[in-house]
Structure formats: structure tokens, C-alpha cells
Amino acid sequence: MEMTGAQILIEGLQREGVERVFGYAGATICPIADALLAAPKLAYTLVRTEQNAGHMASGYARVTGRTGVCIVTSGPGATNLITGIATAYMDSIPMVAITGQVPSVQLGRDIFQEVDITGATLPFTKHNYLVKNAAELPRVIKEAFHIASTGRPGPVLIDIPVDVQDQLVTEVEFPQDIRIRGYNPSVKGNDKQIANVAKAINGAERPVICAGGGVFLSHAEDALREFAEKTRIPVVTTMMGLSLFPTEHPLNMGMIGTHGNVSANKALAKSDRLIMIGTRAADRAIFSPDEIQRRMPIIHIDVDPAEIGKNMLPTVPLVGSAKVILRQLMDRDLHVNCGAWLEMLQEMRREELNRTYPEKEGYVFPGRLLRLLGERLREDAAVCVDVGQNQIWSCKHLRLNGSRFLTSGGLGTMGYAIPAAIGVKSAQRSRQVVAVCGDGSFQMAMNELAAIVAHKMDVKILLLRNGVLGLVRQSQVQAPYHGPYGVDLDGSPDFSVIAAAYGIPSLHLDSEAQTEETLDRFLAMEGPALLIAEVSPDWKTTD
Amino acid sequence: MKQTISVLVENRAGVLNRITSLFSRRAFNIDSLAVGVTDDPSLSRITIIVDNDNTVVEQVEKQLYKLVEVIKVRTLDENALIGRELMIIKVSANKNNREHIMTICSICGAKVVDISPTSMTMEISDTPERVRTFEDMMRPFNILEVARTGVIALQKGAGKI
After folding, report:
1. What is the mean pLDDT of chain A?
2. Do B59 and A306 touch (CB under 8 A)?
3. Which residues of A fall below an 8 Å CB-CB distance to B?
4. Number of domains into which chain A is organized
5. CB-based contact, B20 to chain A, within 8 Å
6. What confidence tier does A507 reach under pLDDT thresholds 50, 70, 90?
7. Does residue A119 share a domain with residue A220?
8. What percent of chain A has pLDDT over 90?
9. pLDDT tens by residue, A438-487
10. What is the pLDDT of residue B52?
């Protein structure tokens, strides 16, 4: 069987079960485009800037559990994608990014649109490849998908020079199995350590589970819920763990961290046993790791051994997949009795969930708006949230009644929400998908309204407009800084006109009295729609 | 305190770049790094000296393991290893001090590999401490140039990494 490198790539992708790729055209990927032309079963989404191909692939991967794929050209196409790759890297999203490259015989001579993308992405990829012989492609593709989707998932980049894409291979062999000598992630937890974990949990009077994005990545949502409900241990989550439990689940104390819920941070502050599952205890979630490790025993369950002991020294480390380990743990004799502790936390949580919000004429307070939005979403909805005040308010106040919450946590990349929502919708057409963003982040991704329209996607966008880059401004108006600088979104367009230019209708909201009715109308609209809510620039996330 | 880490990696283009890039972005301080192919041509050994005081050696090991080309990482026991460094050193020399330099070479086990009317070049391969001692002894003679390889090391005994 004789195939070109490009044809091998497309065949290889399909053998890995890829159904859709996100990309942007370019000279050095014309052979790949040509092979895609001959493979109509592989769907294609054209983005409007390459970074968003990464974000779309990310949204797609997170809701399907499969590896997202993006394909861009060399040079500026590849460098534009770096932000998308780095975003996926920081949140451990399984992704294979394919970049075109100048002809292999001309590498290193500053050819038109040449960049050392493999060198540039060393810090942001689990692994990367520069393929100089198309005969290697079948193995490279299989390895890339394996590395991207196993252990701690992450992006893998494959850089393919255009002459390699055109190279004819006469005896193409797609390997059935591959063996990578230096790559062997642990899945099952060590039995002795499992026993130690069980012992550590059983001794606790005020335990708390801290669950993060790793629980989603290992598909352990159900296992975690079962484990928590069986042991009746209260749960807090990091930002990446939001929506593991519905907001009002009796064991859910909310999000911890710098911008978290009071009840969650209190739970962490007063507990005597911290059980970390699928989280890396990063600086935003746990801002005083030294204090915590001094105060109480810590159990750290994670698939990446390098995360254990990186930020905090655990008393009981346990390496393996969260899903497998939770099952192993549930086979053990677990007898925790922390009813009084749980009740105390639930009381605090109830108070917080029923709090009132500030009001200001001509504006709507995002906390209230997001709570009401959450209550109206279908149970299977997906909310893609951007970065900034819109994100923090969503984390704290969005009522999640079974909906999935997606955001850019590790890198905090503005402009994530809209392309991620497109990625989600591409995978699950009948799912209710809402994107929440601010006017800063909307302007970073609004060019993708074209993709929404081109693919006739019912994606609802909630834009919290305050005319400023709110979260930064919030920091600048308090010590140690002296005032806002470079955070005014002067010259911003009328966003409803922008949306209308794409054929997308919009609604406006500037009065609390109108909120519920407007939200109902917004969510009931057929097809994509934009809801612009007026928010006071002086409001803080701590309000 | 210095720690010696021995890393077995796949002998492929770009591997050294991956290692140094990792060290740079993780802010690991390394004193020296030496790399060479092993008896198995598909594998290279990299010997890295880190300063234990500023860098958590356990994290270095774990982060190295995350690289796909890294096969094995071992922190060697400082009390039970054989460590060697090669240095070539060129000093100013003339008929007045040549003999003196020769005496020091003879004491330290250094070999003269080049000579000119105004200079002498010596090579010494020994433990890092003895190499340093020789260099210190050469300093009064005005060192013109120095090149060193960095430390390579193997653990004593019959075990292998």
C-alpha cells in the first residue's frame, strides 16, 4: 500500500478514532488539507486565529474524554497556537497538535514561515516530534496519542515538514502496539499505600476531601461521588474540580483558594485530615502549603508522581489513576464518623448559598445573575467560563445543578470561553452550551462568532460588560498599587452590533427586576445569542 | 552540598536540549553536565552535578522521569562513587619556572601535552577535588586557558544503572 505522508497522517488520525479536527490553513499544510479533502468523514472546523484551534480542541477533549486535535501551518500559525497548547498543558488536557513545517532539507536557514516549534514548545508539551521521514509517521501518531491520553494527559506536538507530507512511502505499516521505553505511567495504587491511606482516613475527626481536575481527567466523577457519599466526608474542590458535585449537594462545601468560597476555605482551615485527589495543590488553591503540612496529615493521590511533594510534602503519597484508586479504597474497611463536623460546615455553606447581593441602579450584580442563570440551565448543560472577574464570580456564584463547568485554570488564558464552547458544541450538538465572558475576553475571541455561525451552533454567550479589565483593576485600586492603569477598554464597540454583523441577535440587561425574564428569553432563543449584562466597574469579586 | 545524578537516556537528536531546557524552566541549579554514549549505542549517560542546598534533588529526579527519552535516573551515593573530571590547562611558562611547574605536575599526576617558548599545556584527569587542587597550584603561573569536561561518575560495586 503506497501513501504520502499526509495520507498516512489522516489515516492514522482516523485509526485513533479522531472524528473532528480544528485548524487554520497555510502553505505548509496544503498536502494535509488535500488529504482531508479526500476524507470527508473527518470533520473540520476552521478557526479565525490559531490559538482558538487549541481552545476548541480543549473543550472538545474535556467533554468527550478523547484527545482533541488541531492542525495549523508553520511559522506564525504554529507560534499562534503556542498559547492554546500552553493552556492545555497547564490543565493537563489530552491534545495532539499538528504543525506544518518548511521542507526538511531547508531547516535551520530561516526559510519563509520557519520556526523551531519543537524547541519553542518544549516547556508546554508532554512530548513533541519533528518527523523527517514519513515512514515513521504511523508509529509517531500512535505514540503521540498514547502519550497525550495516558498517565497525566497533556498536549503532544507533531511537526511535519511539507516535503515529508508529500513523501511517498511504499510499504506503510500501522503498528498495532507500541512500546515506549521511557514512558510507563502508573495506574493502580500500591496496595500497601492504599492500606496506609485507609488507616489515615479512619483516624480522622474532621477530614476533608479536596478534589481537582484530575478526577475529571481520569473519569472518576462517579467513583468520587460514591466514595464521598459512602464515607460522608465533606468535599471541597479547586477551580478545575468545580461541577464534580452539584452546588447544592450536601457534601459540597465549594471552591477553595484565593478566590474561593468562605465555607470551603473554612473547611480546609479547620480540618484535621486533608485528602487530595487529582489536584496538584497549586498556589491559587492552597496559598499556604507550609502551614497546612505543619498542621495536619495530608494524603495526596495523583497520577503524576512529580506533583506529589512538589508544592507540599504529603504524609501518605499515593500514585495512580484516581478512578482505579477510589475503587481500591472503597474495597477497604472505611469507618469515618464526622457527622458533627459535616453539619457545622453545612450550616456555614447554607448561609453562604442564601446570601444577598449588592444592588446598583443601572447594573446587575453578576453573583445574582449567575445564580439565576445556573438555576435555569438544563442538568446536562455545559458552561464555559473565561478568565477574570467573570470567572471568579462564576466560580463563587454560578449554581451548578449537574451542569459541567469548564474554564482555563492553570494558565488563566483570556479568550478561552467562546472557542471552548464551540469545541464542546462540536462534540455534543444537542447539549445546552453557554459561554460566560467579560468584555476584555470577548474581544479576544469574538472573531470565532464566525465559526459559530458557519456551523450553525446554538451557543449562548453571556457578556458581563463593565468597560474595564476588572480583575486587574481590582488589584490596582488597592495597596500596594496606586490606581487603575491600562485597564480601560476605551474604544470598545457596541457588542450587539458586532453580534448582528455575524447575524447573531442580542439582548441587554441593566436592571435586576428584568433578570429572570431576560434569562428565560435568552435561553429560549433558537440558535446563538448574546446577552450583554451591565456590570459596575467598581464591583469586586469579594463583594 | 553537591549531589551526583546519573541519567540514562535514549541517544536521540535533541535529548540534551530537552534536559537542559527542563533544568532551565524548573530553575534547577546545575554545576556541571557531561554526556556520552554508553556501550549500548542507543543509550547515552548524562552525569549531572546539582547543588543540594538550592535544588530539591527528589524533584529533579521526578521531573526528569517525565521526559519520554529518560529511561533511568539515579542519585549516586556520594560516599560510594567513582567520579572523574578531565581538565586541559594552559599556563604561561618559560625556562625560569618550567621545572617548578613540572614538579607540581609530577606531584598531582598531570601530564604535559604541549609546550611553547612562553607556555605549557597540561592535562589532568582525577577526582574533582584533586583537579581543583591542581588548578589552584597553577594559578600563580598565570593561567591562559582552561577547558574542563564536567564530572562523570559511576557507582562503586557490581550494580548498574
Report:
1. 96
2. yes
3. 118-119, 122-123, 126-127, 130, 147, 180-183, 304-306, 309-310
4. 3
5. no
6. very high
7. no
8. 95
9. 999 999 999 999 999 999 999 999 999 999 999 999 999 999 999 999 99
10. 79
pLDDT reading at B55 higher than 80: no
Q: Which residue, A415, A397, A416, is CA-closest to A406?
A: A416
CA distance to partner chain B, nearest, from residue A126 (Å) = 8
Distances (CA, A) of A208 to A162, A239, A277, A341, A420: 53, 16, 11, 10, 31
Q: Where are the alpha helices (DSSP H) in A65-190?
A: 76-90, 117-120, 137-149, 162-166
Q: What is the pLDDT of residue B1?
A: 85
Question: Domain limits at A107?
Answer: 3-169
Write down the ipTM of this complex.
0.90
The CATH number that domain B82-153 falls under is 3.30.70.1150
Model-level pTM? 0.95
Burial class (CB in 10 A: 0-12, 13-18, 19+), A176: exposed
For residues A462 and A435, membership in a common domain is answered with yes
Distance CA A279, CA B43 (A): 34
Q: Clarify whether residues A399 and A305 are in a common domain.
A: no
What confidence score (pLDDT) does residue A429 get?
Answer: 97
Across chain A, which distance is largest between two alpha carbons, in Å? 72
Q: For A235-267, what is each residue's pLDDT tens digit?
A: 999 999 999 999 999 999 999 998 899 999 999
3-state helix, strand, coil in chain A (%, to 5): 40, 15, 40
Beta-carbon separation of A122 and B17 below 8 A: yes
- CATH (domain of A245): 3.40.50.1220
Mutation choice for A interface testing from B23, B45, B62 by most A CBs within 10 A? B62
pLDDT of residue A22: 98
B2-75 carries CATH number 2.60.40.10: no
Same domain for A152 and A267, yes or no, is no
CATH code of the domain covering residue A37: 3.40.50.970
Common-topology check for domains B2-75 and B82-153: yes
Cell of B7: 541519567
Length of chain A: 543
